[in-house]
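Worked example 2:
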Amino acid sequence: MYHEWRHEGELIDRIPLVIHGGRGKGYRAWTHKQHFPENTQGDWRIDVMTNTGQRIGVLRFNVAEEAQNAMQADGTVRAPGGIPGLNISRLLQGSS
């Protein structure tokens, strides 16, 4: 699985997820991005992608010069558009 970082729709980085745990106890995965373009303002999107190229989650946010115009990424997992009936929250540990 990968996190694909996009700025203004352009793929900037593709970072493999390091997954810890297993089926019995659930799992945790995370990445962090270290190298950003010189101008970071604008719309950002992080896609959670499978090895076969299926998008299974997405996080969108906006970086703005003025703090009141920016969006705060709250960590809420949202199903990507175009996959009817997918309820990814059922797959998350602690969800019912």
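The first strand starts at residue 2 and ends at 7. The chain is about 0% helix and 40% strand.
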